[in-house]
């Protein structure tokens, strides 16, 4: 066999970078996500912390209860992106067919000796970057990814094509990527516990649970996956979200949305992307979570443009009086400035682009909060006042009810109102 797929995933990535930069943290439980006294969540944690039951997306307060001796650190996204670029460059040396799927994860298709390539890559990442990378090797993406999951941490697992079905058969249905926990639970209620049972069950028995997906899921349970590596643009999105220090009414979250849109806009521009879809995420005080999206005809990357859409989604879909504990904004349907097929989508008018670039230059020089959207100060009345940090609760803020005065341009309008900002802004918590 001369064609292999490698799934490469760095171990405990954010935490491993922190341990790399601060050697005194090596071997200790490290939790990345922010101040444990805040209401944020764990972005990731070192395997030393996982031994205590700490996991990604767990509230930081719970993580502190499980592992009080852990070192808690804020998210330093730019540093992780820099390390990620170095790792991806090492992967690209082995094959041009490379598809990064997240900040610490990529598929690579190689010809020749896949297992030997995997060993070489693991050594190179360890030697040149100083991080542990687990690699799964198989005949396709699905098998490579499952092998990687099983080999974690700091492992290598090769599943040759003729071993795939045998290797999959005893695994629990939950192990199959794309099968959610609810579906897995329903299958178990039918008496189907393993991928072997799933693969060989009569389709009619599965139909009530899997509906139109029966054939596809059964084929995947046997290790079938025709998706090529690197085909088309990988589905990508950028998102920012924040858990509020105290619940706020929906009508009072606009300043937080503005901060999130500034961070999102900066990231999009740094990476050369524009978004054709904006998604708003809101978690209510009772933890029910909604997401609402809007597609755009013109791709955008300006802070104010993003905020205008996010705000419209907020006002349309979220009753102003409801209590909210988390808000997030995501930019999807990304188009890259170097993608020739997307050129016709690039607006001829470059004013918004030039304004955004000027904003980035100011932030690069004077810090992220040197310049920002007027909406950040919406509830303070005047921009010179103390800024509204995202962790600020509703108390002390005037007004209530619906967001008032316009916070940004309407969709289609160009540019973002910018005003000087006092003070520093805390960096965001966990994001994915
Ligand atoms: N991440 C995040 N929020 C999450 C999950 C992950 O911010 N809910 C970030 C932190 C992780 C990085 O993405 O370091 C990569 O995610 P992985 O799922 O690969 O997790 P790790 O690399 O931390 O651990 P491992 O791959 O060893 O399981
Ligand atoms: Mg990882």
TrEMBL record:
GO terms for molecular function: damaged DNA binding; DNA-directed DNA polymerase activity; magnesium ion binding. Mg(2+) binds at residues 9, 104. It comes from the Bacteria. Its cofactor is Mg(2+). One of its GO terms (cellular component) is cytosol. It catalyses: DNA(n) + a 2'-deoxyribonucleoside 5'-triphosphate = DNA(n+1) + diphosphate. The record marks 14 as: Substrate discrimination. Residues 378-432 are annotated as: Disordered. Binds 2 magnesium ions per subunit. The active site is at residue 105. Residues 5-180 form the UmuC domain. It holds the Pfam family IMS. It is found in: Cytoplasm. CDD domains: PolY_Pol_IV_kappa. One of its GO terms (biological process) is error-prone translesion synthesis. Keywords: Cytoplasm, DNA damage, DNA repair, DNA replication, DNA-binding, DNA-directed DNA polymerase, Magnesium, Metal-binding, Mutator protein, Nucleotidyltransferase, Transferase. Its EC number is 2.7.7.7. The keyword Cell wall biogenesis/degradation does not apply. Coiled coil: none annotated. Poorly processive, error-prone DNA polymerase involved in untargeted mutagenesis. Copies undamaged DNA at stalled replication forks, which arise in vivo from mismatched or misaligned primer ends. These misaligned primers can be extended by PolIV. Exhibits no 3'-5' exonuclease (proofreading) activity. May be involved in translesional synthesis, in conjunction with the beta clamp from PolIII. PANTHER family: DNA POLYMERASE KAPPA (PTHR11076:SF33), DNA REPAIR POLYMERASE UMUC / TRANSFERASE FAMILY MEMBER (PTHR11076). Monomer. Belongs to the DNA polymerase type-Y family. This is DNA polymerase IV. It comes from Thermaerobacter subterraneus DSM 13965.
């Amino acid at each position: 066999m001369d064609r292999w797929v490698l799934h490469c995933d760095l171990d405990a990535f954010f935490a491993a970078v922190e341990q790399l930069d601060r050697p005194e943290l090596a071997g200790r439980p490290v939790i990345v996500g922010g101040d444990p006294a805040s209401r944020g969540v764990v972005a990731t944690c070192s395997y030393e912390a996982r031994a205590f039951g700490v996991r990604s997306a767990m509230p930081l307060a719970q993580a502190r209860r499980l592992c009080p001796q852990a070192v808690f650190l804020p998210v330093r996204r730019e540093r992780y992106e820099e390390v990620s670029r170095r790792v991806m460059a090492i992967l690209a040396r082995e094959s041009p067919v490379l598809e990064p799927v997240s900040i610490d994860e990529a598929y690579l298709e190689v010809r020749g000796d896949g297992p030997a390539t995997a060993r070489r890559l693991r050594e190179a990442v360890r030697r040149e970057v100083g991080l542990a990378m687990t690699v799964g090797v198989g005949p396709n993406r699905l098998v490579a990814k499952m092998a990687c999951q099983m080999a974690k941490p700091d492992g290598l697992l090769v599943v040759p094509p003729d071993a795939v079905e045998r290797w999959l058969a005893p695994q629990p249905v939950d192990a199959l990527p794309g099968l959610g926990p609810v579906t897995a639970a329903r299958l178990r209620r039918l008496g189907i516990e393993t991928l072997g049972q799933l693969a060989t069950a009569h389709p009619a028995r599965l139909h009530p649970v899997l509906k139109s997906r029966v054939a596809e899921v059964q084929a995947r349970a046997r290790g079938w996956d025709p998706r090529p590596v690197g085909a088309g643009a990988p589905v990508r999105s950028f998102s920012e979200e924040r858990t509020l220090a105290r619940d706020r009414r929906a009508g009072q979250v606009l300043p937080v949305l503005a901060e999130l849109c500034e961070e999102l806009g900066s990231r999009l521009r740094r990476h050369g992307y524009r978004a054709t879809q904006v998604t708003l995420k809101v978690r209510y005080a009772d933890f029910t979570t909604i997401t609402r999206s809007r597609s755009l005809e013109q791709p955008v990357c300006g802070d104010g443009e993003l905020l205008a859409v996010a705000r419209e989604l907020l006002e349309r879909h979220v009753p102003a009086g409801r209590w909210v504990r988390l808000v997030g904004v995501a930019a999807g349907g990304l188009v890259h400035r170097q993608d020739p097929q997307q050129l016709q989508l690039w607006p001829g008018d470059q004013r918004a682009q030039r304004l955004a670039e000027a904003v980035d230059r100011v932030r690069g020089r004077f810090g992220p909060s040197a310049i920002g959207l007027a909406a950040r100060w919406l509830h303070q009345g005047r921009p010179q006042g103390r800024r509204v940090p995202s962790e600020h609760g509703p108390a002390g803020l005037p007004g209530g009810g619906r967001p008032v005065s316009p916070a940004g341009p309407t969709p289609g309008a160009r540019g973002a109102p910018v005003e000087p900002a006092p003070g520093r802004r805390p960096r965001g918590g966990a994001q994915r």
